[in-house]
C-alpha cells in the first residue's frame, strides 16, 4: 500500500457510517448537521472562512518571498546554507490542496458512500479529468511570484513537488499520464510555462522519487535557492513524519519553528493527510488523547 493510500485508508476508517448517520439524532432539537469527513469537505468547499484563510496565507507568502529574494542567505531548504547568491531563486509547492482543490472528488466519494476500495480508480479518473479548480489565492500567488526577481535579476521559478503518482493507464502509451494531466490542469488555470513538465516533479517519475519529497527538494536545491516551501501536510516540509506519533511529529514541527510563516507556509486541510496516520483509526481513543502532547515550542 502506498503512503498516500495508507493516508486515505486511515481517513476512511474515520468516515461516518452513512447508514448510522440516518438514525434519529440523539439531539433532536439541534440542527441536522454534517459530521466528520462530511463536515471537513463542506468547510473546504463551501465556506468564506476557508477562502479567506488560504488567501491570507498566500498573500503573506508573497510578502515573505519578496523579503527572502533580497537576502542571499535566505533558504527554505535546511540542507542549504551560507551565501547562496550563485543560485537562481525558486519556490517549491505541493499540488493537492495547495494549488489544486480536489474537493469535488471527495464529494463524489461521500455522496456515493464509497471509500477506500473505490479510491485508487476514482482518484486516477479525477486526475484524468484535468478540471480541479485552484485553491483560492494560489493562482495570484504563482503569477505574481514569477514576475519577481532576485538582486541579480533572475526570475523566480516555481517547482511543483507532488505525490500524484506515475502509473500506466490501459488506454495510454504515456509513461506518466498523470504528469501530463496535472500540467494540463495547471495550464487551464493560467499557470503554464514552456518548461512546465520539467517543473512538475511527480512521484515515481525517476528512481528514488518515492513518497518522501526530500530527494526531489534536494534535486531542486542543487540548482536553485529554494526561497519558500508551500504545502498542506507536514510531510511536504519534513521527512519521515508519516511514520511518527503525534508527539514526534510535533517535536519535528518545533525544531523548525522559525521557518513557519517565514519560509514555510502551511495551508489548511482537515479532510486528509499524514496527520490521520498519526492520530490513528480509533476516533474515540484519538479524541481522548491528552492534548498536551502538542508542544509550545521553546523560544530562543
Ligand atoms: Mg497536498
What is shown here, in short?
The chain is an alpha/beta fold. It has a single domain (3-15, 37-284), classed as Rossmann fold.
Task: Walk me through the structure.
This protein is an alpha/beta fold. It has a single domain, classed as HAD superfamily/HAD-like (Rossmann fold, 3-Layer(aba) Sandwich). 41% of the residues lie in helices and 9% in strands. The chain is built from 13 helices and 5 strands. It has helices at residues 3-13, 18-21, 36-46, 48-69, 103-112, 119-129, 138-145, 177-188, 196-199, 214-221, 246-255, 274-279, 283-288, and strands at 89-93, 157-165, 200-203, 225-231, 264-266. A 5-stranded parallel β-sheet has the order 3-2-1-4-5, sandwiched between helices. α11 links the parallel β4 and β5. The chain starts with a helix and ends in a 12-residue tail after the last helix. Mean pLDDT is 88; it is low at 1-22. The protein binds magnesium ion.
